[in-house]
Amino acid sequence: MTADTVGGVWSYALELAGEFDRRGIEVCLATMGPFPGPDQRAQVNALSNVELFEGGYKLEWMDDPWREVEEAGEWLLELEGLTSPDIVHLNGFVHGSLPFRAPVLVAGHSCVYSWYESVKGSLPPEPWEIYRGKVAYGLRCADFVAAPTLAMLRALRKHYGIQVSNGVINNGRSSEIFKPLQKEKIVFSAGRVWDEGKNISTVIRGASDFLWPSVIAGDNAGKEGSFTGVKFLGRIQAPEVAEWLGRASVFLHPALYEPFGLSVLEAALCGCALVLGNIDSLREVWGEAALYVSPLDREDVVKTVNMLAEDPEMLRYYSQAAGKRALNFTSSKMAESCLEVYRMMLRKRWLVT
User: Fold this and answer.
1) What predicted TM-score, i.e. pTM, was given to this entire model?
2) In sequence order, what E strands does the chain have?
3) Which of 125, 134, 270, 292 could form a disulfide linkage to 278, CB 3.0–4.6 angstroms apart?
4) Long-range contacts of 95-98 (CB under 8 A, 24+ apart)
5) CA–CA distances in Å: residue 105 to residues 91, 260, 333, 343
6) In the β-sheet with 27-32, what is the strand arrangement from edge to edge?
7) How many CA atoms lie within 13 A of 265 on its CB side?
8) In this structure, what are the phi and psi dihedrals at residue 121, rounded to the nearest 5 degrees?
């Protein structure tokens, strides 16, 4: 299984590996991008079924990555020869075109073209055509393409075409550390502040008019300084995130782009009422269990957050609704869905050979 250490894919891969540990399934975890930090290595070491292989190669969405992406491909083929896996589970697109011997599942967690369209309202400039072509080829060569929501799957079909078996495998999260605590008057948000898709800038712009203080976790590079009503935590580890979510009453996530939203699921497990960007993927996952805002409308965001702050019954209703909805997205269900697809790919391969 491949993973990067930058964002939600790391949490996804470790959550899935943890479920596989409980089922006696061994995982060779091949990381690319920045090398894992000490806390991430500790997470891996806590799992008896995971062997970590660190590549450090550029990721396919980074600037001028193609020489290193090719080198990473050679490395992955060497790892397959070394470990002889039954399944190759790629959490990236381009390496789906490699001549692996084992069946290949490509999981599409996000992509440049759908991000750009959602955030900028247009397609990326011409230099990104190389990326588009390589992603499309990787998807075409896979045995199965999975996405965490139907909205993301439709985006992949639209921008790259999918000519192989495909389907939705919802992400999941364990409630082991994500639990409600004594609730306080806190509006919590999480995400890379510099990522326009997370739209944390709208939270910052509205915070001065929130009735409750705003706390933001995530890489805040470029947003250092003092903002009225905002407390920046910077990058923090999962246990600390869980503690803040357990205390917060409202989770505010006015995203412009969010293919699934693990942070939203964590907030729901912790009993937060959800205020989310009105986009297809979040509506697909959360239905009537959340309140939705126009992501760039500061007044709409402020009005909705303060409506919850002023109405304890409404706050309680949406807290309970989110918690109940979150039970549809467990790590166990995610693992079983993956295993079902693995078995299907193996049966298909046996029939062909």
Assistant:
1) 0.94
2) 2-4, 27-32, 50-54, 88-90, 104-107, 144-147, 165-168, 187-190, 214-217, 230-234, 250-253, 273-277, 291-293
3) 292
4) 95/2, 95/69, 95/138, 96/137, 96/138, 96/139, 96/140, 96/141, 96/142, 97/134, 97/137, 97/138, 97/140, 97/141, 98/73, 98/141
5) 9, 18, 17, 11
6) 2-4, 27-32, 50-54
7) 25
8) 75, 15
- Cα dihedral sign for 322, 328, 333, 338? negative
SS3 category, 108? coil
What is the average pLDDT score of the chain?
95
Query: 267-315: per-residue pLDDT in tens?
Result: 999 999 999 999 999 999 999 999 999 999 999 999 999 999 999 999 9
313 Cβ contact list (under 8 Å, min separation 6)? none
- Rg of the chain over CA atoms, in angstroms? 20
pLDDT tens sequence across 175-228:
999 999 999 999 999 998 889 999 999 999 999 999 999 999 998 755 555 677
What digits encode the pLDDT tens for the residues 35-51?
999 999 999 999 999 99
Q: How far apart are CA 186 and CA 30, in angstroms?
A: 38
Task: List Cα–Cα distances, 98 to 42, 94, 126, 216, in angstroms.
Answer: 31, 8, 25, 40
Domain ranges in the chain? 2-172+331-352, 187-326
Tokens 């894919």 belong to which residue? 9
Q: Are 78 and 61 in contact (CB under 8 A)?
A: no
Three-class DSSP category at 32 = strand
Average pLDDT of span 230-257: 95
Distances (CA, A) of 279 to 48, 204, 257: 39, 20, 8
Q: Is it true that 2-172+331-352 and 187-326 share their CATH fold?
A: yes
* CATH architecture of structural domain 2-172+331-352: 3-Layer(aba) Sandwich (3.40)
What CATH superfamily is the domain 187-326? Glycogen Phosphorylase B; (3.40.50.2000)
DSSP letter assigned to residue 259: S
Q: Measured between alpha carbons, how far is 133 from 160 in angstroms, rounded to an integer?
A: 8
| Residue with tokens 């923090």, as numbered in its chain | 236
